[in-house]
Amino acid sequence: MSKIYGHRGSKGNYPENSMLAFKKAIEAGVDGMEFDIHMTKDGELVVIHDTTLDRTTTGTGYIKDYTLAEIRTFSIGAKFTEFKHYEPSWDAEIVPTLAEVLELCKAHDLEVNIELKTHEVVYPAIEEAMLKIVHEVGYDVEKVIYSAFHLPTILRIQRLDKRAKIAWLLEQFIPMPSDYIETLGLEALHMDKDIVLAQPEYWRQIASKLRVWTVNEEVQMQKLIEMGVEAIVTDYPEIAVGLVR
Fold first, then answer.
1. What angle (nearest 5°) sits at the alpha carbon of residue 209, between those of residues 204 and 210?
2. Which one, 59, 85, 156, 162, has the greatest CB density within 10 A?
3. What are the structural domains of the chain?
4. pLDDT tens digit string along 129-151?
């Protein structure tokens, strides 16, 4: 049975990568959570998607140029007033730390997919810093998947911790995917839905090694569930969970 991962929490209806969005995804009954991390000026790891603050917060500029304390002065809820469920309390939502999100997910025994955003900005030793936090939180290594578009990032993680489960994020077709999985020691491929749905029979052979993103239409969710993919990553976990059940 395909697992359902909340994409940046319950991104379709709540401020992405906020504690509120993660809690709402948990309420929906997700099996796992997908979220992104960046590093601040003072070496702290924060959960946010973009390299800059502009789109999702009331701040501006690159995350790497701010300390954690400075970033925590900005709202990550105030930019989402057009959402159906918006209420003024959202304005108090701030950028969470990796440790905070892990503690929440651990309390609900979820799988977590930590995506490292290392393909645009170089964050010195982010892999070591991340593994240290995961270890300090005491997260079950079997329930943590590390992914990135930047292949060297996940290979470094594997060198640092042989137990680490790594997955390569892809938005382009690759030939002989099982060879990549075996040769690189990947736990899975995290594939763009359009690539998989364009050739479902091709990908069906390794469906159990696929987590597919970002799937928001019911028809597409159903096709992937029928294929038997390992997991579906979606902005609307309540819909996907309902289909699986």
1. 70
2. 156
3. 3-188 (3.20.20.190)
4. 999 999 999 999 999 999 999 99
Residue 123, CA distances (Å) to 75, 116, 144 in order:
24, 10, 21
Sign of the torsion formed by the C-alpha atoms of 156, 158, 159 and 161: positive
Which amino acid appears at position 128 of this protein?
E
- Among candidate residues 49, 119, 135, 150, the one labeled active-site is 49
CB 47 within 8 A of CB 97: yes
> Does residue 108 have an active-site annotation?
no
pTM of the model: 0.98
Please tell me whether residue 213 adopts helix, strand or coil conformation: strand
Distance CA 238, CA 242 (A): 6
Structure tokens at 201: 């029979």
Tell me the pLDDT tens digit for each residue of 164-207: 999 999 999 999 999 999 999 999 999 999 999 999 999 999 99
- Asked about 49 being catalytic, the answer comes back as yes
Q: Answer left, alpha or beta for residue 43, where phi above 0 means left and psi between -120 and 50 means alpha.
A: left
Q: What span, in angstroms and rounded, lies between the C-alpha atoms of 17 and 34?
A: 9
Give the active site residue among 7, 38, 108, 119.
7
As separate numbers, helices (DSSP H) first and strands (DSSP E) second, the chain gives 10, 9
Q: Are 113 and 139 in contact (CB under 8 A)?
A: no
Structure tokens at 6: 């909340």
Query: Alpha-carbon distance 70 to 214, whole Å?
Result: 31
- Other C-beta atoms within 10 Å of 183: how many? 9
CA atoms within 13 A on the CB side of 169: 21
For the beta carbon of residue 242, count every other beta carbon within 10 angstroms. 14
